[in-house]
Amino acid sequence: MSKTVLHRAESRGDANHGWLHSKHTFSFGDYYNPERTQFGVLRVLNDDYVAPGKGFGTHPHNDMEIISIPLEGDLEHKDSMGNTSVIRKGDIQVMSAGTGVTHSEYNKNSDRPVKFMQIWIFPREKGLTPRYDQIELDDAAMENNLLQILSPNSDDAGVWIHQDAWFHMGRLKRGYSSSYRLKKQGNGVYLFVLSGSVDVEDIELHERDGLGVWDSDAVSISVKSDRAEILIMEVPMGN
After folding, report:
1. What is the residue-level pLDDT of the chain in tens, covering all 239 positions?
2. What CA–CA distance (Å, rounded) separates 126 from 185?
3. pTM (2 d.p.)
4. Fold for domain 139-236?
5. Domain spanning 13-136 has what CATH number?
6. Which terminus of the chain, N or C, has less C-beta within 10 A?
């Protein structure tokens, strides 16, 4: 029998710093909920709004796989590995912090905000060599389809990380119905609704709701609104 955990959008932690407004699905910063510290190796799922011209100054990370998915605007990245880049909606960025890296993230524009998902995943081992990558996703391939955007394999679709995790994104139309089959036994799925309404395992989810499912081989998905955009994160349940 599959197990589920439901996180409604309004139940998330809310941190409003003016220049940054962040919603935390899991404990982060000053928001701590002992029942919501992580889902398997998925440690952070932040829904971030950064005001025009503002951003995160240079700060350190280590032993974490950090994924950024822009939803709106342009996010400028600089790091101690020498990478300087801008990521936009339709891109995905990954940084393996490993033995240690510093970076900054700024809203490149002075006239409009940046909105992006910031996701942290524990790597399968510590002390790895830091690395950085970003790609532009195949926008058309997301139409009424679950497009793989991340995996553990450098020769597979999307970016890759040091963990047995797979991410998929889709922009789906009303009537879309499918079953997501897990790639690895023992993994779970955390599905996050970016927009619209979907039924997952017969549980109705709306914009910014999240549902974790584990002890299951597959997860059923059906779209209830005219359009829906979803992010599926399959991750190991062990830490």
Report:
1. 899 999 999 999 999 999 999 999 999 999 999 999 999 999 999 999 999 999 999 999 999 999 999 999 999 999 999 999 999 999 999 999 999 999 999 999 999 999 999 999 999 999 999 999 999 999 999 999 999 999 999 999 999 999 999 999 999 999 999 999 999 999 999 999 999 999 999 999 999 999 999 999 999 999 999 999 999 999 999 86
2. 23
3. 0.96
4. Jelly Rolls (2.60.120)
5. 2.60.120.10
6. N
Residue with tokens 């709701």: 209
59 annotated ligand-binding residue = yes
Q: What residues does each domain of the chain span?
A: 13-136, 139-236
Residue 73, token pair as written in the block:
């605007």
Query: What type of residue sits at position 49?
Result: Y
**How far is the first Cα of the chain from the last one, in angstroms, to the nearest whole number?**
22
Which contacts qualify for 83-88: CB closer than 8 Å, 24 or more apart? 83/132, 85/134, 87/116, 87/134
Annotation-wise, does 162 bind a ligand? no
- The answer to whether the annotation marks 103 as part of a ligand binding site is yes
Q: Do domains 13-136 and 139-236 have the same CATH topology?
A: yes
Flag whether 206 is marked binding: no
Q: Which of 231, 137, 229 has its CA nearest to residue 180?
A: 231
